[in-house]
Amino acid sequence: MRDRGIVAIDPAGVDWRPIERRSPAADEVAGETLTSLVSPGTELALSSADSAFSRPLDLGYSAVLRVTEVGSSVGGIVPGDLVFGFGRHATWQALPADEVFLLQADADPLIVPFARMMHIGLAALATAGVHPGARVGISGLGLVGQLAVRVAAASGCDVLASDPSPDRRSLSPVDARAVLPENSCDLVVECSGKEESVLQAAKALRTGGELVLAGVPWRPRSDARLFDLLDPVFHRYLTVRSGWEWQVPWRSSGTGGGPSIRGLIETGLGWLERGVVDVTGLATVLPAFAALDGYRMLRERASAAPTVLLDWRPSV
User: pTM for this structure?
Assistant: First the structure.
């Protein structure tokens, strides 16, 4: 089969596009994709009709590869190794060697890709400096929120969760409600990007609490009044900040240098490997040839799971 990848096209939607194999650059590793995880929020937004991004646009940023070739300056990785990286949805790809993670030979490619989306919750907690036992609320139980719940619980926090959907609440491993109780949390990680949910999250904070906006506000969704956010922020001394995970550097500056993307991803991979974080039920696994059906399922909310994981292995 000719190599191909998934792209966002114009008008709205996704499609296949042929790709050509090449020799990896000196600092790259190249390999055949085993699995890749769809980011339902970002990828559906990028493929929507009102997306501001130029298209066609390569999609995907969480993939497991079997290495077939390494660049001349790459050490520590050889053909046959299993690696994880911020790769796209494609049969084959090349990635910078410094940006991949060498996996154990028996690593499960159906579980590893969740480490990328776990990083969002990990970054929110790491930059907030939440102490074990703190009451943390997770608002919005899509894929990012579901993983943030699990990450916060694994970090020793007392976790509450909220989502208006009973189906999404049923997937939560902790107490989940339609709305977080008022004045109940030290930190709220808001994962939906919806204005009304942000306002409810602010009301859920205790005096001096912190609101982290991890959900991307891709477009206006309501006529919510800014005053309804400003009032609790001012009178209860709240901190409101971005939860964008790329605020963390790729590598730590050294001992005591703070969190890094690489360090947090490694933490997530370790938790997944040891079963500290259980991702059962969070993705519908489809063979890669059915990828376009998977995007349709997500767009139409026809999947019981928050996202789709694509299996590119020939036997599937």
Answer: 0.94
